[in-house]
Amino acid sequence: MIELGNYNTLKIDRDTSVGIFLTDGEGHDVLLPNKYVPKGYEIGDDLRIFCYLDHEERPIATTLKPYIIRNGFSLLKVAEVNKFGAFMDWGLEKHLLVPFSEQRSNMQENQWYVIHCFLDEQSFRLVGSNKLDRFVSNEELTVKPNDEVDIIITRNTDLGWEVIINQLHKGLVFSNEVFKKIAIGDKMKGYIKNIRPDNKIDVSLQPLGYAGLEPAAKKIYEKLVAEGGFLNLHDKSDPEEIKEVLQLSKKVFKKGIGALYKERKIEIGSDGIRITRV
Q1: What is the model's pTM?
Q2: Which tens digit of pLDDT belongs to each residue from 162-191?
Q3: Which has fewest Cβ within 10 Å: 10, 27, 159, 225?
Q4: Pick from 162, 193, 176, 186: which is nearest to 249 by CA?
Q5: Which residues face 230 on adjacent strands?
Q6: What does DSSP assign to residue 76?
């Protein structure tokens, strides 16, 4: 079966004047237009392509890489708004439609939004949605505390940054635990800090517990080297100063310098920290 909105590995079946036809071996085929046909191909070769609907709503193959795939989330830019809705640039010739009914608020041309791509069962078309909560659920969780996960930043709220976890669940990174610049649409690693009784998930952007010491210690040491071996920071320094210089919380900073001191890599003085000269 050839899956719309996703990558498919198909076999080259035959060539024509307009391109080559690829088959799944189960009686289904799709055209790869000439402009995407690789050089030196042979009938019977396997080819990995992306399949979607062209301007005439016919399945078509491409070797272009879209910015989003079916059932995925990604930050996309509005290329055009008309009476049908917002059309997103997703890296392909035909834009991805986000109907007005799938918009959290009226989307504006040239603005960026986190979008979910799905197959509409009524029209059998790939469409986008900005109503993200419909496509994630915390009823049955697949994560546990301390897990490393993939997250995408979706919205900034009074409490912090809402994120989507592993394309499945909704979580929150509290504002006072963010120590670097982040923005809506950013994709990064996160760490499950806490799961509350109502299945709400607290997420950290830094590794937790002992696992968090090594990256913090490494970051502090690298900054020391870059600054000539001395930093005017210590355990009495203002948290905002530490955040500005290292993008770390004071708590993580203290653990990091503690680890470096234990390894005898630094000395801690009243004026700051310095690399130990051996």
Answers
A1: 0.79
A2: 999 999 999 999 998 888 899 999 999 999
A3: 27
A4: 176
A5: 274
A6: E
